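Worked example

This section walks through a single chain of length 267. The input is the sequence exactly as stored; nothing has been trimmed or padded.
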Amino acid sequence: MNGKTIVITSGKGGVGKSTATANIGAALAMEGNRVAVIDMDIGLRNLDVLLGLENRIVYTIVDAAKGRCKIKQAAIKDKKIDNLFLIPASQSDNKDVLTTEEITNLCEKLRKEFDFILLDCPAGIEKGFQNSVAAADEAVVICTPEVSSVRDADRVIGLLYARSITPKLVVNRIVPEMVERGDMLSHEDVVDILSIDLIGLVPMDEQVVISTNTGVPLVTQKDSKAGEALRRIAYRLNGQPDLPIEVPTVKKSFWKTKINFRFGGKK
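Given that input, the structure is written out below as tokens.
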């Protein structure tokens, strides 16, 4: 086995990167892959909460990378999804505690045990980012349709290219009504600016808050539009690159459609 390492990054914080990591990892595992999701945000951590595993942490990525424990001791098995494992970040260390060499060596070991290793990259482009991309084969950039998010994503994309990593783009938190009114950038605008391949479009979904609070991934919920979009992103990463990308659209009500039909024709 020689697993694939994918860094999920954004540049800007608060764009849904950790949510994407947890759910893409869960969806890949649900497809039968052995998946390790790694929280690289040393000093802070979120993936454990998103997966409902916050009460099961004994060892962290710092312990595993420095040889204080075995990988299987740090890797927490998900309670409901077979083949999904979390290696949490340490809250008691600073961001400079790990070196790129330690992360690279750890990922080389993980490749032998997992089909996919997803690195949840911290915000910014400092040490945490450098460590996260050091061992990556591929990159997914998460961006929201906001000017500040697009600008930060553009900076990160340039740094990834400098490391010979060709990134793919996910546009998150799309509100079709705002796009239709011209109050939000369209995904076409974002793709034109960033000039990288699009791998998924994720609509705004109130189920995200519920998922975060309950620790139940969106991809396990049948009524989540964001969950469905994230599942399809996982399928593309798992060897289905030609799977069509669904564009979030405004849902027309029955009465509005009926009125337009009755009164929108010739007089």
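What to look for: The chain has twelve helices and eight strands.
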